[in-house]
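In this supplementary section we document a worked example of the pipeline. Step one takes a protein sequence of length 198 as its only input; no multiple sequence alignment statistics are reported here. Step two produces a three-dimensional model, which step three serialises into structure tokens for compact storage. The input and output of this example are shown verbatim.
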Amino acid sequence: MKIRFIALIFLLFFAYYEVMKFLDKNKNDLSSENIRTLVELKSGDIIFRKEANILSDMFSNIDNSPYSHIGIVLKVDEKTLIYHMEADEQSDDLKIQSVLDFTKNAKKIAVYRVKNSFEEENLKKILEDYEKSKIKFDYYFMLDNDTLYCTEFINEIYFKLFNENLYTYLFDFQGFQGISINSILKNTNLEKRYELQF
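The serialised model returned by step three reads:
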């Protein structure tokens, strides 16, 4: 009886150790499979991200937003892809990434879903057109040129799908008007699915 009790304690300790080891190893692993176990991502879902760096802090401080970047989900066959506009050391054009790549440096993410229905094929066509156009990132953050920054890009997609803006107001930044993350978060046609912090 005593040996069984000791064996049971050992097995429980081993199981606890393995679970903790898995959680520690995967605490920043936001693979598409891990996210799917929480809430199934769908085409058209809008994903927000906040990273732990100065640039992300700077963008989130604009209009006091909890996030600094935004993308949109497209399901293609078995793949879940995130389309977003971002300039990095490799390129300054449209990014098409896996969920893991989009979220690998995130300390916080949130997923919102559009309440209005739309044809998924329309979204796919819109995103394919942007991909073919080789659209560039807008370093000047202007609304009246032929380049796009992240929130402007998502707003344009929404406008093409629903013939209305996703943003609820234009944020005034030193005389320039722009689309802030918060102006999108306040849209009542978006439903918050979940938020994760790491």
